[in-house]
Amino acid sequence: MAVGKNKRLTKGGKKGGKKKMGDPFLKKEWYDIKAPSMFGVRQCGKTLVSRTQGTKIATEELKGRVLEVNLADLNNDEDQASKKIRLCIEEVQGRNCLTDFHGMTLTRDKICSLIKKWHTLIEATVDVKTTDNYVVRMFAIGFTKKMPDQVASSCYAQTAQIRKIRKKMTDIMTAEAGKVQLRELVKKLIPESIGKEIEKQTQGIFPLKDCLIRKVKILKKPKFDITKLMELHGDGGDDAGVDMLRPENDEAVNTLTADVQAAAEDE
């Protein structure tokens, strides 16, 4: 190669060189996640965020973050392990992230364990507005059930029966969710009371089993209200203070009130 053609080789590599990367975790902070008061375990985990730097504020980066927690962990009950709850961070106070309910799904293995041959699977979907203006989309699932002492291997429902059952499912979901606030709806979803109601009311059309709310999505939220969120987290809502150990003296008067009264008497 002719000398002087490629000057870069003589100068010892590329200009500027590679920038040395530090450990990115040194620039991050841990925040505690607080679940709403309808769940048993309030401290449900931690989340990581980059420290405030310039216009990138850590608390603003956290807001809107969606977390997925198993219901068994939230309520310390292994029997509820088939449900996953989604929580959305709405507010950050100190090192605590206050969350609100954002959705619910059944785990994949639970749904797969329900689906079998020789049965009819019936699904229904409905959009409902709760009394506190949340628009919720609910998905229900149910399966036909064999009659006792049935000889035939299959228990398929007719199309007309499926239509009636689906109509009944949507009516029950609308009635159950449309008359309550979101927090009350979550309390209904945990013990699966809506599914039991569907099973009970569809007995006359075709007996069903394993009626469950498969999924719940929040489509639309009302304008953010900090007081409602604080009520949901139960921070200071029920705190009435401690009773005084001794009765207050009748002559005890607030100093400001005493000054105002004295000024009025002088006039």
Layout of secondary structure:
Elements: H1 7-10, E1 28-34, E2 43-50, H2 58-62, E3 66-70, H3 71-75, E4 83-93, E5 96-106, H4 108-114, E6 121-129, E7 135-144, H5 159-178, H6 182-189, H7 193-201, E8 208-220, H8 226-233, H9 255-266
Parallel strand pairs: 1-5
Antiparallel strand pairs: 1-2, 3-4, 4-5, 5-8, 6-7, 7-8
Polypeptide structure, described:
By secondary structure, the protein is α+β, with helices and mostly antiparallel strands. The protein is 29% helix and 28% strand. It has nine helices and eight strands. Strands 1, 2, 3, 4, 5, 6, 7 and 8 form an eight-stranded mixed β-sheet that branches. A hairpin with a 5-residue loop joins strand 6 (121-129) and strand 7 (135-144). Helix 5 (159-178) packs across helix 7. The longest helix has 20 residues, at 159-178. It is flat. The termini are far apart.
Short characterization:
The protein has 267 residues and is of the alpha+beta class. It has nine helices and eight strands.
The coarse overall form would be flat
Number of strands: 8
Q: In which range does the helix fraction lie?
A: 25-40%
The percentage of residues in β strands lies in: 25-35%
**Based on helices, strands and strand pairing, what is the structural class?**
alpha+beta
Number of DSSP helices?
A: 9
Provide mean pLDDT, rounded: 84
As residue ranges, the low-confidence spans are 236-241
- Taken in chain order, the helices and strands follow as HEEHEHEEHEEHHHEHH
Radius of gyration: 30 Å
- Largest sheet entry: 8 strands, mixed
Straight-line N-to-C gap: 108 Å
